[in-house]
Amino acid sequence: MKLEGVYKSFEEIDVLHNFNLTISDKEITCILGPSGCGKSTLLNVLAGIIKPDEGNIIDQKKKIGYVFQEDRLLPWKTVFENIKLVNKKASSNRIKALIDMVGLNQFENKYPHQLSGGMRQRCSIARAFNFESELLLMDEPFKSLDYDLRINMVKGLVEIWNKWKNTIVFVTHEIDEAILLGHKVVVLSQKPCTVEDVVEIDLPLNTRNLEIRELINVRTKLIKLLSNQENQVKCKSA
Known about the structure:
6-stranded mixed sheet; Rossmann fold; 238 residues
């Protein structure tokens, strides 16, 4: 899937400006960038929710899943029922396998109000995978969780991806999430948003940890790229 020369503005504010990006099939593409730069707008363009003002989207996917910052579970349905809802043809064994993969195997008959925030988010991720989308968009799904739980959720997502090999675009503010998950990490500029850099990480996801020298070097590079963006914002505001 490719975005070529995409422009999008809202009320004369340029958000995406001559935006070019390739999303590789069966890989996880992580998106980093300054707050308010247009990351959610990008996801909505990829989803077809928002139409670009100019430019082309080549090979736009038709069946798209979306995991939001909030879990958006139906409160009157159980974990099992929430996951089954998006794909009623899915077998019970498939749903139970997804429940097991996200660590909720003892909670399949529980309702959202009986779960912690992290458990509800895990349920929403299992639901998204049950949808069997061509493209799965994830908009800071671990944002409200503490650091240790976020890292555990990242590990769980890696396990699910290794089984299902979905094409995923994962938006985050957290560099550690990006380097543990991304086959490539796309760094965006401040508004008007363009692609500042693309960092490819050629390490199997299930072998990664934050102490690997290559990932430490990638982390340093990403910190520098993002710091440059923040400094540019400060200079313009001064």
